[in-house]
Amino acid sequence: MPPAPAAKGTEDAYDVPADYKPYVPVAKRRAALLAQVGGRHLPQAKKVKLLSGDNSTQASREGSAALDAEAERQAADEAEMERVEREKTRREKTLLQAAQEVRRKKEIEDARKSEAEKEAEKEAALLAEMERAQKKLAGAQELAHGTAYTDSMKTSWRPPHYIRNLSPEEQQAVREKHAIILEGEDPPPAIEHFADMKIPKPLLKYLSGKGIKTPSPIQIQGIPTAFSGRDMIGIAFTGSGKTLTFTLPAIMQSLEMEAKLPFTRGEGPVGLIICPSRELARQTYEGCVAMCDALKADGDYPELRSLLCIGGINMADQADALNRGVHIVVATPGRLIDMLEKGRLNANNCKYLCMDEADRMIDMGFEEDVRSIMSHFKYQRQTLLFSATMPRKIQDFAQQSLINPILVNVGRAGAANMDVIQEVEYVKQEAKMVYLLECLQKTPPPVIIFSDNKNEVDDIQEYLLLKGVEAVAIHGSKTQDEREYAIRSFKTGGKDVMVASGVASKGLDFNEIQHVIVYTMPKEIEDYVHEIGRTGRSGKTGVATTFVNMNTSEQTLLDLKYLLMEAKQKIPEFLLDIDDPRAAQGGVLRGCPVCGGLGHGLSDCPKLEEEMRRKTAANARYDGGGY
Ligand SMILES: Nc1ncnc2c1ncn2[C@@H]1O[C@H](COP(=O)(O)OP(=O)(O)OP(=O)(O)O)[C@@H](O)[C@H]1O
């Protein structure tokens, strides 16, 4: 490598080789370049100094020429960059203006829209957001593998030919006659007589003996739909016979499977019915057992075994069913998961899955349990969801989890049973207990009194016992034995009054309850609908008295007012006086998509608020390492 040239003016200066290219530091090159481009960026004095640097030698002249060429190139680049920059600024300006334009237009449009339309838009956006956040209701394995079934399950059941031959218009006329609203592709026909549903004779006889002679509207459409193997969502008011709509098909499927190959130890179930409470599960189980016994007693049908799978009971008592193979399991989620995980039950042969009070089940707390149960299914099954109060949010969510489902709707989801006479009374908090005694005189027993507070339930029972009223109490903190005793003694007429928390009694069917007293109005109108629905069942009339006072929120009172209006009930003066801000804005009354309440929109739904509160609390626990 040649020695580095000495700087001009030093003693060691020598002639530089012709091919020598001097090294010019980057900073200098850049400065020279900028100066050449026009000197815009540097003061004049500095420019002169840089250019007069080494220009006495040939090498520095050549270096300077190279720099000139590079400077030109870079100048062109800079000019191009400037042009792009200018263009960008121009475009940004236009975009900004365009955005302002759009905003202005939207403001004008919004001004034209009514408050109700704006609220509806807001709700739709919120709902879409919720839907995106929800995972499909399927087993973890199915979700992970992306398993997607496209066809409904097949069964051998066919409607009789004279029903099949009815035109779609004739079938629709039957639905309209019974106020059945249906959604879904290629629906099975509505059938107005049990005999036409090809139900085995011993079962028809059994049902008739219980006063069940003609199907109720949900049964008219729901039973043929379930018999056909279709997934379905069944919504009908309290006491309208939903239980039979899903237990009969479980029995029919079991009969079909048993006829093909008798069940042996470890096999089954064919049908799985999940309920949100132990009491409801027991009641449904007892209904199944009674129907299976009726079939067996006839002699022409095989024995079908049912199993009750709920917390608080000794499963060894049902060892016989487990040992010989079980056809139908009625369960609450917790105990069922336990049995499935321990391998005492499996879902390998299960073809029929039904969730009663499904909205409760999917509501926070149960959703993960249901998913966990579903992860035990290896094959496709028919899935049915039932409730009296299934808000739109759950319906939409469920729809995407079912296969080509049929939605059978009798009345608005969340509407009260029209056979219940609803009386709402303003009773001061301190006067409630005393007034309760007077209120009990309205009808003969049996009477149910509801309060959502466990302590209050105990207080009411104690007070009634002191006053000589035969009362039992049931709530979540009672032992299983206490709960069973309360229900048994009330059902059999041993006790006149049952004091209950709403949760413990959902879906329970007691014989001819005369009067329901809602001692404390629940915050969520859905709960109220379920509570008053313990009376006025299977076409009979009942009375419901509800106490409200200063402690009842205006929002709840508004929901109540609309529910009374919808059910054509008498509306007390103090409820009439409550104004609905949405009504003043000319809003159309639609049920809140989360809870079905008519008195509010999604943005002020108490149920959604409660869900959010629970979620936030759970997250806070998680963040704080509470788990
Ligand atoms: N077709 C029918 N004719 C007369 N009574 C019936 C009929 N179907 C069912 N029932 C009776 O009506 C009562 C209420 O039925 P069920 O418990 O199935 O109501 P539900 O719709 O499930 O109510 P809930 O929403 O409160 O759970 C029961 O005692 C049942 O035996």
UniProtKB/TrEMBL annotation:
A Gene Ontology term for the protein's cellular component: cytoplasm
A molecular function GO annotation: zinc ion binding
Domain Helicase ATP-binding per the UniProt entry, residue ranges: 223-408
Protein name: RNA helicase
InterPro entries: DEAD/DEAH_box_helicase_dom, Helicase_ATP-bd, Helicase_C-like, P-loop_NTPase, RNA_helicase_DEAD_Q_motif
Residue ranges annotated for the DEAD-box RNA helicase Q domain, each copy included: 192-220
Leading EC class: hydrolase
Short motif (Q motif): ranges: 192-220
Gene responsible for this protein: RH35
Enzymatic reactions: ATP + H2O = ADP + phosphate + H(+)
Organism phylogeny: Eukaryota, Fungi, Dikarya, Basidiomycota, Agaricomycotina
Annotated Basic and acidic residues bias: 70-91
Keyword Thylakoid: no
Assigned keywords, A-Z: ATP-binding, Helicase, Hydrolase, Metal-binding, Nucleotide-binding, RNA-binding, Zinc, Zinc-finger
Residue ranges occupied by any Helicase C-terminal domain in the UniProt entry: 419-582
Chain positions covered by the region annotation Disordered: 43-91
Gene3D superfamilies given in the database record: P-loop containing nucleotide triphosphate hydrolases
Its EC number(s): 3.6.4.13
